[in-house]
Amino acid sequence: MENKKENKVNNILMITAFPTYGAGSGVQVTALANSYKDAGKKVTIITGNNKTNFDKIEGVKYHVVPFKSEEENPEKIPGQCDFNYLMFTTHTESTANFWDASLSQIREYEKAFRKAISEEIKEEKPDVIHAQHNWISTSIATESSVPVVTTIHGTDLMGFERSKEELKKVRESLKTEKDPEKIAKLKEEEEKYNLYIEHSNKAALCASKIIVISEDQKNRFEKLFPLAAKKVELVENGYDTKKFYVDENIKKEDVIGNLESQNKNNQKIPLDYDKLVVFVGKFADFKGIDVLLDAAKIYEDKMEKENKKVETIIVGSGQLENDLKKQAKGLELKNVDFVGRKNSDEVNKIQNLADVSLIPSRNEPFGLVVVEGMACGHPVIATNSGGIPGILNSEKQDVSNKEKTYVTPLGVLVPMDDSKALGEAVCDVLDEKVKFDNKYIANYAKEHYAQEKVTKNILNIFEEAVTDKEKADIER
User: Fold this and answer.
1) Which pLDDT band, with edges at 50, 70 and 90, does 284 fall under?
2) Cα angle vertex 49, ends 44, 53, to 5°?
3) Which pTM value belongs to this model?
4) pLDDT over threshold 80, residue 24
5) Which domains are delineated in the chain?
6) What Rg, from alpha-carbon coordinates, does the chain have?
7) What percentage of the chain has pLDDT greater than the value 90?
8) Measuring CA to CA, how many Å separate 462 from each of 8, 18, 59, 112?
């Protein structure tokens, strides 16, 4: 009888400095935790949050590192930091970020995560730690004897680069500043950015394995952390096939008819449109929603001349919300409606009704929403940057000219920050000047990006990390 290989990894501790919802990395943590649990693993998640009541996976343990909400009556959580959880950009429930935080807040932040990680390692005795982002909490996790596998999400690499830029600026200012009070503040800033750089280097060098989610990200990580290059494994993100799929029974009356427009006086979204365009994402500058709105002016006007009405639904929220709504009003967009943040079930229904999804990002490390749109059975128009070409360029054509527009079997790649190209691409797709096989697109997404397949690859990496650690311990 053949001996079944014994699994070394049965107990997984996941660490994320952010909530497990509201942004791409949080959604990914939840999807992975679900799949680990389905694979028979015990899962604990350490997560930064400003509340304790949020959607949780049954059977998964959550340890909240508590922060103070910006709401009028914030939840009082024992031991909470007196500031909101810190972001690289923005989050739907936090405007706090690493760049505006004081040195004393960062010290408190370190202390809070060190305490949580220490407690869960002691209590749960995990076989492996799956840390998210090459940053502070991951650096702290590598101080334990448990092997750490880190997933890079892209904003952490941007954070490392920005830290070096900010440090350079601070040191330039210190050369000429005479005011003792300002010098003291600059010294604190210098220490803070040094700390970020040290944590990033430590996280990269001390992790057992590094998972990157795109070829573009792999190249970027290896350039920033060359001494950790041998640890890198490319595993593209997966999507939850139970949450994103083609559903032909969804009717626009039941879904769009029940949405409320946040930028229209009567809040109603008319159902007499001919085509539906959808954007899903947080309102951060790198998402390029400002470019989308400029493009909407182009495709709205052009399609109107052909007696066709295009409705654009924008799902999400964030710090730029007021600016974007103001931009939409200034452009006199007739059929662009902001509907706020929606859960995955609601997004799936909206995506199923869409004729096309738009992702105009300036720097998208992977682009999970690209895959989710494809899974709902329609083409995606997105910028030719970051990890997006790795998804949409299924036939591996030469897309190196960033000023050109490329059509693939899955959608269209357009130049970054080019509203004209984006608007024209939308018109070509909606007019069916370029045609797509929606069934092929949905099947391609499932075949290449189903979470189950991705999880199997990651679990194999965990096994390798534990085996390598055991060998290293014996050699010592």
Assistant:
1) confident
2) 80
3) 0.80
4) no
5) 11-238+450-475 (3.40.50.2000), 252-449 (3.40.50.2000)
6) 23
7) 83
8) 9, 22, 21, 26
How far is it, in rounded angstroms, from Cα 438 to Cα 354?
11
Between 307-311, 372-376, 472-476, the lowest mean confidence (pLDDT) is in: 472-476
Query: What is the reported pLDDT for 47?
Result: 97
Instruction: Report residue 150: phi and psi, to 5°.
Output: -110, 135
Give CA 256 to chain center in angstroms. 25
* DSSP bridge pairs for 358: 381
Alpha carbon dihedral 321, 322, 324, 330, in 10-degree steps, equals: 160
Rounded distance between C-alpha atoms, residue 286 and residue 280, angstroms: 13
Distance CA 340, CA 143 (A): 40
User: Does 107 score more than 50 pLDDT?
Assistant: yes
The two structure tokens encoding residue 185: 């503040």
Per the listing, tokens 């509201």 go with 22
The answer on pLDDT for 475 being more than 90 is: no
